[in-house]
Amino acid sequence: MGAETMLPSIRIDSWDDWTRVYNDVSVWRGLVDAICAQESIGYREIRSASANTNAVFLLDRAWALKIYSPFWDEFDLERRLVDALRLEESIPVPDPVGSGQVADADGVAWDYLITRFCPARPFSEIRQELSEKEAVSLAEQLGRMVRRLHSLDVSRFANAGTRRNWGDLVTARRGAAVGELIAGGVLDAGLEGSLSALLDDAIGADLAESRVVAHGDLGADHVLCSRSDGGWRIEALIDFGDAKIGVAEYEWMPVWMGFCKLDPTLARAFLDAYDPALPGDSQFARRAVAWTLLHDFGADEVIRQWRERGQGRAIGTMEELEALLCPGSIFG
Asked: What contacts 203, CB < 8 A, 6 or more positions away?
């Protein structure tokens, strides 16, 4: 298919522009066809995977094609991680099939990644079917996988192309997080000083030599599970688009709020499998609270959870905030 038919004449100048078209098959069909021709892939059926912020399409339930948003800088690190993790049996990921760039009719280059489609079901879909024992088992499996992920040699990914490095992200979040919580009605303004000090302490303890590969978005939609005679198991971890070379506690917010859905039993199972010493670490909760708010979309998630719970007043003490973000019922 010629370049002139790859993409309609549209401009994507803002996030609003992107959200209007990113999961519209009719907009992307020409570019998808060009990518498939470049990778020698044929397909008959295409549908969007709409629970994404990139343009992701499932082709014949055989391949998953991700076309990356121009507003995020995810492609290079995710591509490198998927290539590396396919050799790590203890961290299952869908097999990569192809990656690269294709230009549209205006000469704009679009990054893409293709992996094999995984037919397993997301944890979010099966959670209500599971017994507590089965859910705990999956949380334990996830804990072991994350531990292995965090033990990878980060130097293998140090040169991944990024426009926004870890330091830039942390600086931006430090400047915005507390104000976002106050403006969102979650936090009483009187806590600004205490919380700012907590964030500064966490940032001060962030040493380059202790950084890890963090998935960054291990919510329930990104943990795919299947059932066999041996019970439920995690079949694949997907969507490393929010991965960072950062601190281990950066992983906590999406696991606690997304995968565990604020269930202390699942959180304790995850932590015990990840590192049995963590539930006895008196400083872990403080670090977890800090890096929840320093997470790229941590404040947004905290505000959303707070509103869903129908809270009538802003949090007025650090103890209340800790009870929401990393409660003491997980420990001991």
From this structure: 170, 174, 294
